[in-house]
Amino acid sequence: YPTWKRTLARRARESQVKRFCRAQAIQRRLEEIEVTFRELEQQGIKLEKLLRDENESPADQQTRWTNQLLYLVQKKNNLMSEESDLMIAVQELKLEEQQCQLDQKLRSYMNKQETLKTPEDEKAEQEILKQLLEVVNKRNVLIQMQEEKRLSEL
C-alpha cells in the first residue's frame, strides 16, 4: 500500500471524524435551542396573562412587563435565526460527507489503469463525476444563502 494512499485514507478518516464531531455539536445546540424555546414560551405566556389580568396594575409595572415580553420575542427571534444557521450547517455537513464519499469512489476509478477499465467503469466514473459536480453546486448554493442571510442581517 503506497504511502500516498495511506495518507489519503488517514486524511479521509480525520475529516470524517471532524464532521462527526461538528454534527454532534450542532445537534446538541439544536436541542439546547429547543429547550430554550420552551422556556421562553412559558415566560411569554406568564407575562401575557399578567398583562391581560392585571389591568389595575400601575402603568410602570405594565410597561416593565411589556418590555420583558418584547425582550423575550427578540430573544426567540435570535434563536430562530441561529437555528436556521445550524440547519444550513447540517445540510452542508451532509453534502460534505457525500462529496467525500464520491471523491473516494472517483479516485478508485481514476487510479485504475486505462487499459484495465471496462466501458462500465468509464460510464460509472462519468456518473460519479456528474454527481460530484451536483454536490459541489448544492454546497455553493448553501454558501450563497448563508452570505445573503449574513448581508441582510447587517
TrEMBL record:
Its main location: membrane. This is MICA1 monooxygenase. Keywords: Coiled coil, Membrane, Monooxygenase, Oxidoreductase. It is found in: Membrane. Residues 23-50 form a coiled coil. It comes from Aphelocoma coerulescens (Florida scrub-jay). One of its GO terms (molecular function) is monooxygenase activity. InterPro entries: bMERB_dom (IPR022735), F-actin_Monoox_Mical (IPR050540). Residues 13-154 form the BMERB domain.
